Amino acid sequence: MAGLPGAARARSVSPGTAPTLDGTFLCSPLGGLMGAQAVLGLLVWSLIAATTYHLHAAYGWVMFVSLFFWILTLLFFVTYLLQLQLKFYVIPWPLVLMIYNAVATVLYITAFVTCAAAVHPTSWRQWDYNRRAAASFFACVTMITYGVSTFFSFRAWKGLGSNAATSQVTDH
């Protein structure tokens, strides 16, 4: 659980306590990346929603992926920000977060490729072309942030970056 904020306090929080804000989570790599994913995902789906996406089936997939993972990212962000993961200590949060980020990366790759391939510069509506091209760019950047999050989640899941003393204290 090294690398995740609140990992050292995982066993000291009782289930009956009120949720508190974890300011260190916002400064952690995973917290910063989740915040970036929320902003970038919002840009992707709002840019697609501002076009006539319903006329093209490819943009329906991009809209689904971006909106679905935007909502889930917000839920994970709030969960970690309020330290709610400490109340559900039975769930292997580092593993869940790693799998989530890996799946998001793979599906965002498909969404990015689909969005980029469906952009046609000869569109009869120039503003649709600009928004779709921008959505493709932000889908690529969002895909990269999910990939980096997968790397950090993997390191946290494996306990890399900690020593034997801290891993024994937090795991037992």
From TrEMBL:
<feature type="transmembrane region" description="Helical">
    <location>
        <begin position="61"/>
        <end position="83"/>
    </location>
</feature>
<feature type="transmembrane region" description="Helical">
    <location>
        <begin position="30"/>
        <end position="49"/>
    </location>
</feature>
<dbReference type="Pfam" id="PF01284">
    <property type="entry name" value="MARVEL"/>
</dbReference>
<comment type="subunit">
    <text>Forms oligomers.</text>
</comment>
<feature type="domain" description="MARVEL">
    <location>
        <begin position="25"/>
        <end position="158"/>
    </location>
</feature>
<dbReference type="GO" id="GO:0019911">
    <property type="term" value="F:structural constituent of myelin sheath"/>
</dbReference>
<feature type="transmembrane region" description="Helical">
    <location>
        <begin position="133"/>
        <end position="154"/>
    </location>
</feature>
<dbReference type="GO" id="GO:0042552">
    <property type="term" value="P:myelination"/>
</dbReference>
<keyword id="KW-0812">Transmembrane</keyword>
<keyword id="KW-1133">Transmembrane helix</keyword>
<feature type="transmembrane region" description="Helical">
    <location>
        <begin position="95"/>
        <end position="121"/>
    </location>
</feature>
<dbReference type="InterPro" id="IPR013295">
    <property type="entry name" value="MAL"/>
</dbReference>
<comment type="similarity">
    <text>Belongs to the MAL family.</text>
</comment>
<keyword id="KW-0472">Membrane</keyword>
<dbReference type="GO" id="GO:0043209">
    <property type="term" value="C:myelin sheath"/>
</dbReference>
<dbReference type="InterPro" id="IPR008253">
    <property type="entry name" value="Marvel"/>
</dbReference>
<dbReference type="GO" id="GO:0016324">
    <property type="term" value="C:apical plasma membrane"/>
</dbReference>
<keyword id="KW-1003">Cell membrane</keyword>
<protein>
    <recommendedName>
        <fullName>Plasmolipin</fullName>
    </recommendedName>
</protein>
<dbReference type="InterPro" id="IPR050578">
    <property type="entry name" value="MARVEL-CKLF_proteins"/>
</dbReference>
